[in-house]
Design goal:
The chain has 377 residues and is mainly β. The chain is 4% helix and 51% strand. The chain is built from one helix and 31 strands.
Length: 377
């Protein structure tokens, strides 16, 4: 029933709206290969120094966010924030693990206020602010007395405001327990000035953990928003009631006049329904001025190990060409395959990915090399 309702809403939005509709995995203009040289103007490699203090975990989902600011690279992992210079030399770490002021139990993401030179860190349920030298300035908790458990999934600094996306669970009303996704806007004093509910899903309370957490981006004075709806995947079979969703699974939105407005829709063959009767799940949708990107899980394709297939998708709005590539793109410049790129949140004209190069005589695994690309316009 949920799938049918979703498809009806999605089809109506496509018919009545004037936003861009993009075919993902069908059509004559879809290619199964994407060398990065076709879309990237430049790609720069930064070899990150390995030391006892700067040991990184390159696994997907552990690299929470990377920020390039002036001549420094900030890298957030769940247990530490690392700072390298533009040549890859380790500079410092910021903060420490703990429960006290300025300490974090687990890092979800980070953002930089470039004008006031401050670093905002989302640490599960609280926001911590440091200066760029790592000195603790202030913090606030997003959990208030009597309210539900909450996790901050994404944080950005946009137009002199802190924007966060948070998911709360163990909420309850007359219909039962539900999970809720909200966007909060906070001022520099970390006081809430506005909030928006984008999803309310009645299900067994749990948090959705995604390896890709690029939900809010800022491009050409426009804030874009996407959040995946895991209620439509096989792992969520226990939904008891229809969900209240202001956003759709296959649509990228923008903020306009304090409202979410559809920007573009990804259209799958068979309306995105896989072999098990579940919709293909987008892990993310983001765009630059020219390209639209997405990663998704295809529930109609299973690999040799019995796992559902994952795809990286790119659409060129200038040429109309699409690239639907299984397991990732190919960097034909550095000769690296199976790449999933991520955007810089305040400048999606740039992207990054990382790769660990192992030499035959290496006695231990080195830090990954960070690759920074600039997209063509």
């Amino acid at each position: 029933m949920i799938i049918i309702v979703f498809l009806l809403v999605s089809c109506n939005g496509t018919k009545n709206g004037d936003f861009l509709e993009i075919p993902v995995n069908f059509g004559k203009n879809i290619s199964s290969q994407l060398p990065l040289s076709e879309i990237a103007e430049t790609i720069t490699a930064i070899e990150l120094e390995l030391s006892d203090e700067s040991l990184l975990n390159p696994k997907r989902g552990v690299m929470k966010r990377i920020i390039l600011f002036e001549d420094y690279v900030f890298i957030a992992q769940p247990d530490k924030i690392f700072v390298f210079d533009i040549n890859g030399q380790f500079v410092r770490s910021i903060g420490s693990k703990g429960q006290g002021p300025g300490e974090y139990f687990g890092i979800m993401s980070m953002a930089i206020d470039e004008i006031n030179r401050r670093l905002y860190v989302s640490a599960y349920h609280k926001i911590i602010c440091y200066d760029l030298d790592g000195n603790f300035l202030k913090e606030t908790s997003m959990i208030k007395k009597g309210e539900s458990e909450i996790a901050i999934k994404d944080i950005n600094y946009i137009n002199n405001e802190v924007w966060i996306l948070a998911q709360s669970m163990k909420n309850e009303d007359e219909n039962g327990l539900y999970n809720q996704v909200e966007i909060f806007r906070l001022n520099d004093d970390l006081h809430i000035i506005d909030r928006y509910t984008t999803q309310k899903i009645y299900e067994r309370p749990r948090f959705f953990v995604s390896p890709v957490e690029d939900y809010i981006l800022y491009l050409d004075s426009t804030v874009y928003y996407y959040y995946p709806n895991k209620a439509l995947s096989p792992g969520f079979r226990n939904i008891r009631r229809p969900s209240v969703n202001q956003v759709l699974q296959d649509t990228l939105y923008r903020f306009k006049n304090n409202q979410l407005v559809p920007e573009l829709k990804l259209k799958f063959k068979n309306n995105g329904i896989g072999g098990d009767g579940y919709l293909n799940i987008d892990l993310n949708i983001f765009r630059s001025s020219r390209y639209v990107f997405s990663e998704y899980i295809d529930y109609s394709s299973i690999d040799s190990n019995g796992f559902y297939a994952s795809f990286c998708f790119c659409h060129d709005t200038k040429t109309g060409k699409g690239y639907n590539v299984r397991d990732g793109f190919t960097d034909d410049i550095q000769h690296i395959e199976k790449i999933a790129i991520r955007p810089f949140h305040t400048n999606p004209e740039m992207f990054y990915y990382w790769y660990t190069h192992m030499n035959p005589d290496d006695l231990e695994e080195p830090n990954p090399t960070l690759y920074i690309g600039k997209l063509k316009k």
